[in-house]
Amino acid sequence: MSARSTDPSAAPSAGSLDIVLVKGGRTKIRYPAEVVSDDGDRITVRASWAGDGARDFGFVRFEPGDVFTEHYWRDRWYAVKEVRTADGTLKGWYCDITRPAVVDDRTVTVEDLDLDLWVSADRSRVLRLDEDEFAASGLAERDPEAAAAAVAALDALETLAHAGRLPGAAPH
């Protein structure tokens, strides 16, 4: 995957596009989103919860009506998603460890690398997630450089979260 398009006409304009999350070489989920901003390095979109019904993770519950403001970078190995209820109440931030985003005029495509981070709205809980899935994925054997970049991205996000400086989140 190319991290950045060199064709300026490939950058999306305001409007809608699809977010495509790829895992294991297959599309895991595809959903529509509205472009909020794009500075050439980071594209920010807004989307409604795309899951079927509610999903309770134990530490947070995503449900119909939730609004995600999602930040994707063309040069960073993660995406940060601010999650709010339909009435605007902040639930927290869900961070996916991914390869850098590939953006064109119709899609933002990222490859999910199994690691995730959750930061609660009050920032009292910072949880590393799915490290067992990451270990079982075999990425470290298939692509050691990508595995190292993924772990470094998770470590960096965790450090930023504890410092109250999570990218895409207002400082506290």
Largest sheet: 7 strands, mixed, barrel
Strand order of the largest sheet: 1-2-3-6-7-8-10
Structural class: alpha+beta
Under the CATH scheme, which class?
Mainly Beta
Average of pLDDT: 91
**Strand and helix order:** EEEEEEEEEEEHHH
Low-confidence stretches: 1-10
Count of distinct strands: 11
User: Any idea what the radius of gyration is?
Assistant: 15 Å
Strand content range: 35-45%
Number of helices: 3
The share of residues in helices is: 10-25%
- How many separate structural domains? 1
Shape type: globular
What is the oligomer described by this structure? single chain
At the fourth CATH level, what is the homologous superfamily?
FomD-like
Distance between the termini: 35 Å
Could you please describe the fold and organization of this structure?
This protein has 172 residues and is of the alpha+beta class. The chain has a single domain, classed as Beta Barrel (FomD barrel-like fold), CATH 2.40.380. Helix content is 17%, strand content 44%. The protein is built from 3 helices and 11 strands. The chain has helices at residues 131-136, 139-142, 144-162, and strands at 16-23, 26-38, 42-48, 55-56, 61-62, 67-73, 78-84, 90-98, 102-103, 107-120, 126-129. Strands 1-2-3-6-7-8-10 form a 7-stranded mixed beta barrel. It starts with 15 loop residues before the first strand and ends in a 10-residue tail after the last helix. Residues 1-10 have low confidence and may be disordered. This is DUF402 domain-containing protein. Residues 31-163 form the DUF402 domain. Keywords: Hydrolase.
